[in-house]
Design brief:
2 helices; alpha+beta; 12 strands; 4-stranded antiparallel sheet; 164 residues
Length: 164
């Protein structure tokens, strides 16, 4: 297979040209593409990425806020499953004032973010906006919401048998 010619290489005529060499060089320079405009490049890139993102959005998952999907979990506690992928789940717990989750262990790390209210985990206070990581296998002290709380959790889904 013949190699592809280099489009930027000067044209060397194999037969005598009817045009002067200087004019051939000027024509060659005029036909050489200019360097891309960086502003136009960015605009094209942005439009391409927007188009790709619109097509990908259908594969995303959005769970709207509201009262749909909540179910009883334990006395004074409701759970809303947001997403489940194998043994890992993302869910919300809404805890009424004074609600308590007894001590327990997790089969995998569990991440918790307090969205509203405050939690007391044993002697630890976790305020609104606070993050708590419960390590896999470690005993998790009781979790209390003295004034109520809304928390986001990601980890193992609580055992279905524990649901009320």
């Amino acid at each position: 297979m013949d190699p592809q010619p280099d489009p930027t290489a000067p044209i060397v005529p194999t037969t005598p040209s009817a045009l002067p060499a200087e004019l051939c060089d000027m024509l060659h320079d005029a036909l050489t593409p200019d360097a891309p405009d960086p502003v136009a490049d960015q605009r094209l890139k942005r439009r391409l990425l927007q188009t790709l993102a619109r097509e990908a959005t259908a594969s995303h998952l959005t769970v709207p806020p509201g009262d749909e999907g909540w179910r009883a979990f334990a006395p004074g506690i409701q759970m809303k499953l947001l997403h489940r992928d194998g043994l890992t789940a993302a869910y919300l717990l809404r805890m009424a004032a004074g609600a308590t989750i007894p001590p327990h262990r997790h089969p995998q790390d569990e991440e918790c973010v307090v969205l509203e209210g405050q939690l007391r985990i044993g002697g630890l206070q976790v305020p609104c906006g606070g993050f708590h990581l419960a390590r896999r296998g470690a005993l998790h002290e009781s979790v209390q919401a003295p004034a109520g709380a809304l928390i986001y959790l990601r980890g193992a889904l609580p055992d279905e048998a524990q649901l009320i």
